Amino acid sequence: MSKSLDTSTTEAAQTVTEVIDTIAATTPDVRRAVADYRGQSNSVNPTGDDQLAADLRADELFEQQVLGIDGVASYASEERAAVKTTDGRLHIAMDPLDGSSNLEPNSGMGTIFGIYSEQPPTVGTNLLAAGFVIYGPITSMVVARDGNVREYILEDGDKRVVDDEVTVPEDPTVFGFGGGVDSWTDEFESYAEEVRHELKLRYGGAMVADINQVLTYGGIFSYPALESRPEGKLRVQFEGHPMAYILESAGGRSSDGDQSLLEIEPDGLHERTPLYLGNDDLIDRLEANID
Ligand code: AHM
Ligand code: MG
Questions:
Q1: Residues with Cβ within 6 A of ligand 1?
Q2: Which helix (H) or strand (E) holds 116?
Q3: 168 located within any domain
Q4: Which residues form the Fructose-1-6-bisphosphatase class I N-terminal domain (predicted)?
Q5: Predicted interface score ipTM higher than 0.85
Q6: How many angstroms separate the alpha carbon of residue 98 from the centre of ligand 2?
């Protein structure tokens, strides 16, 4: 699946640890920014989505902190058109505030990150580690690294392990599909019809929280190809690759309909992809259905 490092010895492995700890340490400031910057700014991000003041502040905070780490060579984010570079070896791609349209109703939100050995745009098999934070009732962090997935509680930016081997439960329970039913393709609609008789609908509008439900209860999350938008909504580099790395490391599968999301080599930094993540069997059936 993905690359792994000899994490105990290499300098790169130390940088990976430093990046993860720095992101954790930045979360109290991000939580404050979410509260302070609830109002909307009049801007759009490089893929044309509304950009909130909180999105911009979270991006600024992570850019400053992550680029300040010695071994980090570049910072890319959903909120900026170009990659920001410096000297170093590892490359960070982030969605600083995922699910920010949930800010208005005060619902789930988070941060997604991928640590790559090559500068984005690049293939997901170049990931060395990936993770996400949820700013929920508690702040939690899930990190995939060296084939293992851990969940932490963050307190004042410090990590405390609560599960040192997160795996996708064998018996799936939940599903969450984005896009309106009327915008789905006929093939996806018939798959969804099948799934809705087997699983319980849990869709929160923030991928971080919806993916965490799949990790917790088993099931499938998708933002599929739409009739009017075959490329779907979510971005390869900032959302697809990191979440695929996490799900695959936890024993699940990822797909763009044909192949693992990690196989996608985006032409552009902000390329989008249809995205399906969950238990093996559910993804196998999805791929067979939408062929
Ligand atoms: P964002 O990164 O701009 O916040 O958008 C991504 C979010 C995902 O977290 C979520 O799965 C999806 O957009 C929800 O979209 P919708 O509101 O169309 O259901
Ligand atoms: Mg996002």
A1: 49, 78, 95, 98-101, 178, 205-207, 223, 233-234
A2: strand 110-116
A3: no
A4: 21-155
A5: yes
A6: 4
